[in-house]
Each structure stands twice: as structure tokens, then as C-alpha cells.
User: What shape does this take?
Amino acid sequence: MPGLVEISKEILNNKQAAYIIGYEIDKHNRVKPFVAHNADEAERLTFNHHALNNLAVYLKRLPKPKEGKIGIVAKGCDIRAIVGLIQENQVNRDDLYIIGVNCSGVATDYDVEFNPENTQIKCKYCQLKTPAVYDVLIGESEEFPLPEDKMGDMMAKIEAMTPEEKFTFWSEQFEKCVKCYACRQVCPLCYCEQCIAEKSVPQWVETSSSVKGNFAWNIIRAFHLAGRCVGCNECERACPADIPLSLLNKKMGMTAKQEFDYSHGMAIDQPTLVGNYNLKDNQDFIK
Amino acid sequence: MKEVLISYNTIKETVAKLLNKEWNVITPSPDGIRYTAITSSDEINLAGDQRPTNISVKEFFFPKTDPVFYFKKNQSEVELIDAVLNDKKNLFLGIKPCDAAGIPVLDKIFNWDYKDEFFNSRVNNSVIIGLACSYSDPQCFCTSVNLSPDSTKGSDLFLIPVDNSGFRLQVITEKGSAFLKEFGALEETSGPAHPKNSTVPDKKFDYDKVKNWLDNNFQSDFWKGKGELCLGCAQCAFVCPVCHCFDIIDESCGYECGRRVKNWDACQFGLFTKHASGHNPRNDQSKRYRQRINHKFKYYDDKFGEILCTGCGRCSRDCVAGIDIGEILAEINTF
Assistant: This one.
């Protein structure tokens, strides 16, 4: 992407950021996360349709620099996660140097060609092809053809199911879970210092990969992300068992939008959905 | 080594016969996620060019959750009930060489100071038919860990596709031979030598050289920051055909009963080495990554004379952070 390397070098040389979290291409042409600590390393930074990772996850994991800000290359869906973290007081806006990137869609995997069939479905729902918050903005956003909405079709199919059918559907999906918790680890909004799945006195969530334990884990995670998930779909991409986690998260997001007109990670100064109470909130669930 | 020619149809008929005799027949699922038991002989999958399934065949021998025993409270006494071992016969058909090779590697740890009857009974009840592999991608590196796309390690019988006529079937073990006698309607032939495999992965590193470096460089600066981008999701261990760490936990099913189970665990989790005091000897991801590499390419070899890796490339292929174990070993190879 034009300008990315030049701007990054300047930021690092001027000590505006201690390091920059971005992407590099490895020798097998795979685009993967990379941290540039100096101007030489910044030469390796890149961005294209295969920059899949939501780098915001590293904001809570990499050591905080003693001096200077954390630089981060961010496309729209990553920006929502960053803004979400700021809204939730996990990251301070002043500690970040955001290199916003205009995004023209990302592929489903690192080894497939970028075309409408291999474009992530999240791009169809994207509200931020140009990031809303940044210190510097690079690239041009281009129109790109969108894939068929298989997720929307699946959502409609599940909506039409009876509760028993829904239970059967999700039992079959969660049966596949191997409890690796990769969904949690890649999630920028899953930042609890101690996850409920790690508490053993009492053991809230069975560590066994049983229907009960798998349901408990996946439903608890969905609930924790209700009104907080920013729809980056990294959990689904990470899942080795191909569980369609985005369906759960999307449903929660749609409910938040419908009932409270709220989308997470859209504005820094907006109070969070679960951290805020409004007398006008819908109360008809109280029977 | 005995070799016979076998047609696709003969395999199919044999599978149908086995399914009638209530055998489990397990092949790679066409969606590429894992190995699955089939219900009809039409579902057999002998595509040697398929990418290794996301999750390895390990879970059939060492399941993600493995009950050891159950307990029940009867008034003031606690009754212990043994977990029932399933004695159903299993045929594993079309197993990747990098998956089959994992079974004898796991056998070492499960028969070390304690004989794990659960693992052993599953292995004893299984016949493994490996299938020569014609898939290769940049993450594959079986050739660097003393294996190859047609290595028969861990297989009882081994299939090598021959043109469109069927397969050459190699008899590897006594068990495989007995299986053929019982179920095979085969005649020995002297067909053409099998074609050379054209998709052999490049050798990425020299194992002996890597091992030698690991022997002397536990404290090396090389490890510093190696885990910087690792998210600690441990998916690498969960998809691995030979990672075998587990946790033992008691689970209740209410107030009166419960079970003790072995559940998969992994060294990339921070919790893995965290002591009750709060102290954690592997307190950052780089130390955990060093452990992963050393366990696979040094400790296991020191203890059991086997490399704890079959070069299937799953851990690198599936890593969300794009960490490639083959590349890291190739880097060590340059020191």
C-alpha cells in the first residue's frame, strides 16, 4: 500500500510511536501480523486483501512501551475493536498512533485469491470501509463486488426454527468444539485477565468437551459479547472445528441494534450498551 | 515386503462387509475438518491429494475428553465404577502418512512408566490403512523429520494409487496380514513399480543440526520475543497428531455422582504451568514457545528416541498469527 512504509518510518524515526503493529508478507506469500520496532523493520510493513488479522487483539497483549505510543495499522473492522476498547476504558486513545487504512475487502483465507466468492461475508455488513478514527489515513477505498449472503440465509433459516430445532442445530455445532479457546484468544474484546473458563473453584464451565460443557462455554462467550462484538469474525476464522460462531455474534449484534439502536465501536465518546442505562430502554421483557 | 494389487471396488466391498459386521470404518471427511466414522461404503474417501484434515486422527486414540472412572455416593460410602472400554473394531482407511506415523510416537508416552489401557485398547482394536500422500504446500515438512509422503510408519497396510486401476497394497505388519487373510479376496501380483511421487515437500531443515543447537541453547537470545505475536490459543497443540498433554479433573454430575476425566491441555496456555501460589515459571509466551519447540525436537527424542512431530504442518497452516514452525526450525538450522 503506497505511503505505508514511508509514514511508518517517519513515525518510528520521530519517536511518535515505540513500535508499530502491522502486517508483513512471509516467504510463502502469507500475510501475517508483524511488529516493526525501528525504521529498518518498517520496510517490511504491508497491507492488502489478505491482511486478515484483527490487530487490535495485540493492544492488550503486547507489553506497554515505557516511552511513546503504540502504533497500529488498522482497517475499518479493526478500528471498531480499537474504539470499543477505548469505550470500555481498556486502552487510552492518547497512547495510540493509529494508521488508518481504507479497506477494499478481505479474503476468507490467506491462501485463496481475492474475488467475490472468496470475500469475507463481514465485508458485506461493513459500515466502516474508511476508518472513523485515525491519526493518519492512507490508501483509497475501492468498490468491490460482494459475495452471496450465505450468512443472512443461514440466519433466516435459524430464525424460522422452533426452539427444539435450534437446540439440535447448536448441539450439533458445539459437539465439534475441542475446547481450545482459540475463539477467545483471537478476540480483541475478550480481554478478561482471568476467564471464567479458567476458574476451577468452583468450576463454572466444564473443561470437558461434552455437550454440557461446550454449550456452557460457547453460550457464555456469546453473552459476554452481546452488544460488544464488533463483527471482525476472527473467532470463526480461528476455529479449527469450523463452528459458525459469527451467527451467534451477529444475532446478538442485531438484537442490540434493534432494541437499543446500539453498535459497538462506532464512536469513542458513546457510553457502552451494558455500561449505560436509559429510562427509555425497552422494558417489555419484564413480565 | 508383500505387495498386492487392489481395485477401488474391492476396497468398497470389503468396507461394506466390515460395516455389516459392526466395525467402525473411519476416513477423512470430505469437508476436510476431521476424520469421521462412515455409515455406508459409498462414503469412503481415498483422495491422496486432499489437504490434511484440520484436526488429526489422534482424537480417536486419545480423545479430547477421556473418562478414567466414575464415582457414586451410596449413603456414607463412595463407589468407584470403571470406565467401560469400547471393544468395537476400527478400520482406519486412507490415513495420511503424517497422521499414521503419530500413533507409534504416542505409543511411547502412553506406555512409558504407566501403561495406558485406554490408549492401548484403542490401538489394539484398530487396523490402520495408510494412503500415500500427493498433497504438498509450503507448511508441509514430513521430509525434514525423517518421514515422507509414502512412509508406512504406523500403518498396518499401506495404499499407493496406481494410475486409474486401483492401488498397490503393501502389507506392513502382522496385524495387517491377518486382516487381509480374514477379509481380503486378493491375489499377489507383480504389477508395475509405483510411480514416483511428484509432490514431495522440500526439506526445510536438517533435524540433527537443529537438535544439536537445541541441546546447547536453552538460554539463547533467539527465544526472546519469539512468542511476541503468539496469541496463546494453543490451537497448534489441539490439531497436532502427537501433542499429548492432558489435565486430570473431577467433574460432578450433581451432588451424588461424578467422573474423573483426562482433558487435552497445552503448553501454550498461561495456566498450564501456573502454580497455586500464583507463581508461573513460564510467565511469558516466548518461554512457552521455547518449551513447545524443545519438547518436540529435543526432550522427546532424548527420552524416547522419537521426534515429537510428523511434519504435517497443521500447526503452521492453522495458526491465526501465521507462526510457521518449519520456518523457525529452518532459521535454527542456519545457526
Remarks:
- Chain B has ten helices and eleven strands.
